[in-house]
Amino acid sequence: MFLPIGDTPNPRSTPYATWLLIGLNVAVFLLVTLPLSGSRVDLNDPLLLDYLHSIGARGSIPVEAILQQVSAYDLTVFRFGYRPAAPSLLSMFSAMFLHAGWMHLLGNMLFLWIFGDNVEHRLGPVRFLLAYLATGVAATLFFAFFEPGSQVPMIGASGAISGVLGLYFIWFPRNKVKVFIFFIIIVQVVEIPARLVLGFYLLVDNLLPFLFAGAGGGGVAHGAHIGGFVGGLALAWGIDRLLPAWKGRRLREARPEPTVKSEQPETPAEEIRRLLAEGRPERAVSRYLSLETREQRRQVDGDQVLAIGDFLLAGGAHDEALSVFRRFIADRGNDSRLSRAYLGAGRALMNKPRCMTSAYHYFLGALDVAEDPNDIEAARRYIAAIQKSGRSQ
């Protein structure tokens, strides 16, 4: 048996939104699920007939049989769980807070408790709640796409929590997950790279069953788990890439480029080099951020790209600087100056709220690739500063 029980490192902030979601799910279970599970169904409920038809009951059914097999909670799940054949906006959200039993609830809350705090620290409580609900909706829609005629209600927080896992996968690649292993006589806790644990969850626990048993095979909504995870990946990518690019477009629109007359038009790399040489780094920033392809960006001298990032950092444009350094890392994986880009990205994140853990990972990345002793020393200095700051909180 393999059971995740924690992760490291963890932020020092209190994950209020994560605890709120856990509290809401537990409260619904205690106040709704448990009482109604032991209550008899109301035979006058107009939804009862639809429910019986959905489970295949036909003809005359003795009242005693109904009372023995159907509880009031069954009808609640039928009403507020998400049924692809009878979709509603209310059930799309209410289904996220209903669970089938203690094990269903505890498993979901364990994963939310382990992985939610880091993601919430990165996004902030309000945006974390919005991301949670958005990926939960994505999970539901993905599941419904493959089961459009199903009247079986889908319930549980696992779709939304899978979205949190997708966000975690992108943003915290160097984290470790503490896994409890119990196998015959082996009982121990080991730390495994987070991406291995989450990759196993996605591929082995969900994708393979989805391919061979269907979206809801075995009573588990594997399709919802996959949809939520992919939704989280897409949301993290959008926040990291599209948001800085959009801000860069606003910067370019506010500072229109002059027309340069030349017999032979300048290439983007030549124009950026000229603008920097002329002492016009603002124009060079706008021109670099306008480059749409990796090939165009790779033609710009690496030192000039790093100079653009440093200029943005010095001016307090941390989002744009982070975008420049991340592009350098993505475009120039074998560049000898890669450690400088990791350091720049870490410095940018240190100046953004709730991003200290991500900054820590970038400084670790700088240590991994640095060849220059100065870069190694700088990375160690920043890591020590973050660790000292964490202990003082």
UniProtKB/TrEMBL annotation:
Any one Gene Ontology cellular component term annotated for this protein: membrane
Keywords: Membrane, Transmembrane, Transmembrane helix
Location of this chain's protein in the cell: Membrane
Pfam families: Rhomboid
Annotated TM spans: 16-36, 89-116, 128-146, 152-172, 179-204, 224-243
GO MF, any single term: serine-type endopeptidase activity
Highest taxon of source: Bacteria
Domain Peptidase S54 rhomboid: 89-238
InterPro entries listed in its UniProt record: Peptidase_S54_rhomboid_dom, Rhomboid-like_sf, Rhomboid_protease_S54, TPR-like_helical_dom_sf
Membrane-related topology note: Multi-pass membrane protein
Listed Gene3D superfamilies: Rhomboid-like (1.20.1540.10), Tetratricopeptide repeat domain (1.25.40.10)
Protein name, entry field: Peptidase S54 rhomboid domain-containing protein
Source organism (scientific name): Geothermobacter hydrogeniphilus
Phylogenetic placement of the source organism: Bacteria, Pseudomonadati, Thermodesulfobacteriota, Desulfuromonadia, Desulfuromonadales
